[in-house]
Amino acid sequence: MAGYNTRFHDVGFDIPKYLLPWNDKTIIYDILKNLGWVNQLILVANKRDIYFKDQLVEAIKPLGWNDSNILYIGDTKGQAHTAAIGIEQLNNKYLPTFVHNADTIIKGRRIDFIADDLTAKHDAYIDVFVGNSPKYSYVRAYENTVIEIVEKKQISPYASSGFYGFLTGHLYLEYYNKLAEKDGELYIADVIQSMIQSNKQVFMNPLGSNQETIVLGSPQEYGIEIARQTLGAK
């Protein structure tokens, strides 16, 4: 939630995109509702959006969260850096830990099952769907074991939804810190690829008919989905 929101702001949206209307509530509400079981939550937002804090608190209150679950920060070096700041705030970094984009709604996943799989035999998890946009990360996999992940290069049909899991938050920080001094923006995909190169075990979800991925990262994507909702209501 700590990005610049440039694409939406440039076309006239003044509020952060995670607070845009969605199914009579907000995007962030639907994201959190569909995650299901979560033991601890940190929402990492940009301090330039602190004006909207009351609206954010109202959006998450029905789900049992409050302002103690929100962390406002300055600009970061990118997605991976933002995730590292959030994970540093967790009370226990030695439990299965998940990171989720604030502009993608995923349905039909079970965090508790994924956490069990991480604890039993894997080091990281990448949630995927069938994608075709050059904006996404893509993975190559063999029988749901990920052997490569790259940013913004379509190497397979399997695109990352922006939902990632790690055996522990500490493990993520260990690999992030190895890359933190590199120039340019650092993505979570870069961190996971470093793990793969160190022979860590990374898996992805098998695709199923009960799964749905709704990407709302751009004004165009949001507009298309709102139109679909309107048509469905009629």
Q: Which second-level CATH architecture applies?
A: Alpha-Beta Complex
| H-E string | HEEHEHEHEEHEEEEHHEEH
Hey, roughly how much beta strand do the residues contain? 15-25%
Mean pLDDT: 92
Tally of strands: 12
Spans where pLDDT lies below 50 across 5 or more residues: none
Helix content: 25-40%
Structural class based on helices, strands and sheet pairing: alpha+beta
Number of helical segments with 4 or more residues: 8
CATH class categorisation = Alpha Beta
Account of the protein in words:
With 234 residues, the protein is an alpha+beta fold. It has a single domain (6-217), classed as Spore Coat Polysaccharide Biosynthesis Protein SpsA, Chain A (Alpha-Beta Complex), CATH 3.90.550.10. Helix content is 34%, strand content 24%. Strands 5, 7, 8, 9, 10 and 11 form a 6-stranded mixed beta sheet that branches. The longest helix is centred in the last third of the chain and has 15 residues, at 219-233. It is globular, with a radius of gyration of 17 Å.
Concise description?
This protein has 234 residues and is of the alpha+beta class. The chain has 8 helices and 12 strands.
Question: What attributes characterize this protein structure?
Answer:
alpha+beta; 8 helices; globular
Topology:
Elements: H1 6-10, E1 21-22, E2 25-26, H2 27-35, E3 43-46, H3 53-60, E4 70-73, H4 79-88, E5 97-100, E6 104-107, H5 111-121, E7 124-130, E8 137-142, E9 145-151, E10 158-166, H6 169-179, H7 188-197, E11 202-204, E12 212-215, H8 219-233
Parallel strand pairs: 3-4, 7-11
Antiparallel strand pairs: 1-2, 5-10, 6-12, 7-10, 8-9, 8-10
